[in-house]
Design a protein that fits this description.
single chain, about 180 residues, mainly alpha, 2 domains, about 0% strand
């Protein structure tokens, strides 16, 4: 893919996506998969983008663009992500503020919330399936269970619970501990 095609793809995704970075990440995964981008690379990009400081949308666009077309691809992808919301906010903010108590506008945003929830659920389910389904992957459920248990039942801080989950995964058997 060329930097221009990356710009257009991310522009289209950003122009029709509500819900922020996770929703954009889900749509980018779908679009990149159509273009032959490997699932393993997309999983790596998703993990890195959520761990990087800053918005997930720009981080994932940067990482995907860089992987596909170098620095020019990264810059084009980030520009494609940023241009639509910039102009949408610029053009629509006055209207939304003037009609913020409107029932139809509230109904529109409730519908958007449902669509975003479906996109996020699809992304999460896909990552869980990728991590837990397959020969020998069942063992990956133990760190998940440990983290959830430490947070919900032991009241441990999420960062400490995640560190315990990573520690458990390091001592569990497996050929490659970092690919699920």
């Amino acid at each position: 893919m060329t930097p221009l095609s990356l710009f257009v793809m991310f522009f289209r995704i950003s122009a029709v996506t509500f819900g922020g970075g996770i929703a954009i990440l889900a749509m980018a995964k779908t679009e990149l998969k159509k273009r032959g981008f490997p699932d393993e690379d997309m999983a790596e990009i998703a993990a890195l983008a959520t761990a990087m400081p800053g918005p997930i949308a720009t981080s994932s666009a940067w990482l995907a663009g860089r992987k596909i077309a170098g620095i020019r691809g990264a810059l084009a992808s980030v520009a494609g992500i940023l241009v639509p919301p910039f102009f949408a906010i610029l053009l629509l903010s006055g209207f939304v503020m003037a009609h913020r108590d409107s029932a139809p506008l509230a109904a529109f945003f409730k519908g958007v919330l449902c669509a975003v929830a479906a996109l996020v659920a699809t992304l999460v389910w896909g990552e869980i399936r990728r991590s837990l389904v397959g020969k020998g992957k069942w063992i990956n459920i133990l760190p998940y269970a440990l983290v959830v248990g430490l947070i919900l039942w032991a009241g441990l801080h999420p960062l400490l619970a995640m560190a315990c989950g990573v520690g458990l995964r390091l001592i569990l058997p497996g050929e490659n501990r970092w690919t699920c």
